[in-house]
Design goal:
Blueprint: E1 2-7, E2 12-21, E3 28-38, H1 40-44, H2 51-72, H3 87-96, H4 103-111, E4 121-127, H5 131-148, E5 152-156, H6 157-163, E6 191-196, E7 201-208, E8 211-217, H7 223-233, H8 240-253, H9 277-291, H10 300-329, E9 333-337, H11 344-356, E10 361-363, H12 367-370, H13 375-387
Parallel strand pairs: 1-4, 4-5, 6-9, 9-10
Antiparallel strand pairs: 1-2, 2-3, 6-7, 7-8
Helix pairs in contact: 2-4, 2-5, 3-5, 6-13, 7-8, 7-9, 7-10, 8-10, 10-11
Bound molecules: 5'-O-[(R)-(carboxyoxy)(hydroxy)phosphoryl]adenosine (KG4) and zinc ion.
Residues 10, 197-199, 224-225, 227-228, 239-242, 245, 338-340, 342-343, 371-372 line the site of 5'-O-[(R)-(carboxyoxy)(hydroxy)phosphoryl]adenosine.
Length: 408
Amino acid sequence: MKILSIETSCDETAVSIVEAEGGTESPVFKILGNSLFSQVNTHREYGGVYPMLAKREHGKNLPPLLMNVLKQAEMYAENPTSPSYGEEKWQEIKYIVSREDGLFEGLISALKNIEKPKIDVIGVTSGPGLAPALWVGISCAEALGKLWDIPVVPINHMEGHIASVLICKTEEFSIFNFQFSKKTNTIRFPALALLISGGHTELVSMKGWGEYEVMGQTLDDAVGEAFDKVARMMGLPYPGGPEISRLAEFARENNLPNIARLPRPMIHSGDSNFSFSGLKTAVLYYIRDKFSKDHSKMTIDEKADLAREFEDAVVDVLLKKTNEALERTGAKTLIVAGGVIANKKIRQAFTKLADKFSDLILKIPTNSLATDNSLMIAAATYLNVILNPKILDKQTKIIASGNLKLAM
Ligand code: KG4
Ligand code: ZN
């Protein structure tokens, strides 16, 4: 099955073309084309993602990214004489994308002379995320579906993060290496997924693909959000996660004394919920009391010490809750996914935790698959189609859902 996938839920615009086979038992994916544009430089001056700006950027980026992946997949067959999908079709497409500035012009100039690509299904993130950003991807997917008569399937971004572990992409991977991954992709159920991203922190128990139960989640800030806010308090640029991570590593490498002390919120709550806003406030108070609210009075060593203590506090809480949930569910596979698992210390901590369990498979995506991307959306699209082939027949208007839940 050949899948075109689109991801625009936050500040990454991403498009992929993936060929999938093997069913839900042993899915394998061949990456035919993959393009991602990060808007992080655009948003940096705002200190976070500015939704209307993200929307505008997605509209601008999608047509060239799409053209790029079609070329990579050798599906960009130009034929100036034959295709032209007819004035009427373009009018329908104009209507579908009418709320997205510039998207129609971008699509028509990128696609008007190319032949219909051999794609079976289009998967697009419909939520959770920033609604204005989600809408651009949805409108684009629906326009392509209309243009080429290809079914379009809405995908939950968090299911995408879970499915990211199915794509075996080594760091040396090149899209020009058109091979199916040989690595086995078996997930043994029941499985447990810890999802840690900029918008979510949740522990999900999985009986099988598509069968999710959220055991617990953050009651306030998500882990990634806490990383970003704490970084801002220390005067570090957006996105703060990688910055904190670098500083914390510096503190460890140089064995800096541990002066900052932070709480481990809800570590003994006995349930699977999390809370990170108290941790963030503790950092605020620390900077207020010790440095008169002024981060510029902090030396690099003092910032590094605080970053390390913050990271350690996060690790302690995540590990404890995951350990408890593994024992409670008897999970045979642990999946840890979402942008925050790009953090080296957290990756190491989970590798160590998994070693404690004699028969536990640990699945962590590579860094480029941990942060938002469209390959994971392609993987989730495949699972959805295999589990429920009827979704290809019943095409209904897709609605962006900023707060879409994983399990109903
Ligand atoms: O999954 P993701 O790309 O987007 C969402 O779905 O939210 O996650 C983004 C989050 C940001 O908060 C970012 O600071 C965090 O992942 N992040 C990290 C690291 N790299 C990205 N957090 C800690 N350490 C990192 N190395
Ligand atoms: Zn994400």
